[in-house]
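FW: tagging you since you asked about this chain on Friday. Here's the raw sequence from the shared folder, copied in full. Didn't touch anything.
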Amino acid sequence: SQIQVETGHAQSAAVGLGPRPSPAELFRFCLPIERDLPPVSITRFASNRFQFSSPSTDFRPHDPLLLRPADIAHLKLPGPASALLGISVGFGSNFLSGIRSGSRILLQNGYHRAYALRSAGFTHAWCVVELVTRKDDLRLTANPEVLADPEFYFGAKRPPILRDYFDPRIAKRLRVKRMDCIVEIEIKISSSVATAE
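HL: got it, structure written out here
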């Protein structure tokens, strides 16, 4: 479902792989549990407004997390706290992963590594595959493009496939300026007094 790859990023990802990786090295390339994270810059615009940016397309906000006193006992806070609301910004697991429905596997994540592997002549790779037996399950795993038209990806006679990136009749190379992914967070707090029942 991803219509573009940045070839420079794909090539740099493959540099450490080498021409003849062992099965263990290939596994770590496809499912990187430990990895160097891309740089992140942080700007504070006001006491309640922050901007985070990174050159990685995997950069994103995570779900807010509510922490209780036992979770924050080690923090130096300005006073006794009953809870702490945390909003983390960072990266996904970044595993090569797909969604299987019927006989098809839709590549969900890891496009640049899949592109790099195919460029180097690899035909097989390690991949985390989530099995979907009902279309309702797609809401838990699929990205918005797939959710908008799941029948196209899982039912069409000729869906987009990985080798389309390499077909000059379909693919086009473009020069684009480097872009950063930006996450902006603004905190709005209101407090009031209400009578107890």
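FW: Residues 7-15 form the longest helix (9 residues).
HL: agreed, and Helices lie at 7-15, 23-30, 69-72, 111-119, 138-141, 144-148, 150-155.
FW: great, closing this out.
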